[in-house]
Amino acid sequence: MSLMSINYFGYAVYNVTVEESIVNLLRFEISKMDENATTTINIDPKYNNLISFEVTVESRNPEDEYDKIVDIISATNAIIIHLGSVEESYSTGERCYMGIQTLTPANDLNDYIVTCIDDFFSEYQ
Questions:
Q1: 12 vs 33: CA distance, rounded Å
Q2: From the CB of residue 80, how many other CB atoms can be counted at a distance below 10 Å?
Q3: Alpha helices in 1-125 (DSSP H)
Q4: Domain coordinates in residue numbering, the chain
Q5: Among the four 18, 30, 40, 46, which has the fewest Cβ within 10 Å?
Q6: Is beta strand 80-89 parallel, antiparallel or unpaired with respect to 50-59?
Q7: C-alpha distances out from residue 30 to 46, 103, 120, 122, 125, Å
Q8: What stretch of H or E contains 12?
Q9: How far, rounded to the nearest angstrom, does the alpha carbon of residue 36 sit from its chain's CA centroid?
C-alpha cells in the first residue's frame, strides 16, 4: 500500500468535566504513536464534557492508525467517540472520506449501561 496522509477528526464525550490534563495526555500519547503527527485537541466551549480533535499522520496502513487513535482516546475513559477520517494517497492524489463512526469504548459507565439494557431485555426472554 502506498504512503498516504490520513486526517482523523471527531469528538469524544466524557461523563465528567474535561480537564486540561486529559487534553495534554491525549497530545502526549498521540505524539508517542507518531512523532510527526499534527494534533489539534480542544475542550468544547459550550459543553465542558466534550472535546474536539483532529490528528493528521502519514501511514501505509490507515486501519492500524485508526485503531491506535481509538485506543488512545478510549484510555481516557471517553464514553462515546465520534470518529471520521479522510485519506489522501501521495502517489495517486486520490482522496477518500471514510465517514463518521460512533464508538462506545469499554469502560465502567458503558459496561454499566450495557448490563442495564441486558437486564431489561432478559425479562422478555
A1: 19
A2: 16
A3: 20-33, 62-74, 108-122
A4: 4-122
A5: 46
A6: unpaired
A7: 25, 19, 39, 41, 44
A8: strand 4-13
A9: 18
Q: Fold for domain 4-122?
A: Alpha-Beta Plaits (3.30.70)
Nearest CA among 74, 76, 82, 84 for reference residue 106: 74
* Percent of the chain topping pLDDT 70: 98
Nearest to 59 by CA among 48, 68, 46: 68
Contacts 24+ apart (CB under 8 A), 45-51: 48/17, 48/18, 49/13, 49/14, 49/15, 49/16, 49/17, 49/18, 50/11, 50/12, 50/13, 50/14, 50/18, 51/11, 51/12, 51/14, 51/18, 51/22, 51/23, 51/26
Q: What is the mean pLDDT of the chain?
A: 90
Write the pLDDT tens digit of every residue in 14-29: 989 999 999 999 999 9
- Residue-level length of the chain: 125
What letters, b where the CB count within 10 A reaches 16 and e where it falls short, cover 22-51?
A: bbeebbebbeebbeebebebebeeeeeebb
Take residue 21 and report the three cell numbers written for it. 490534563
* Cell reading at 106: 469499554
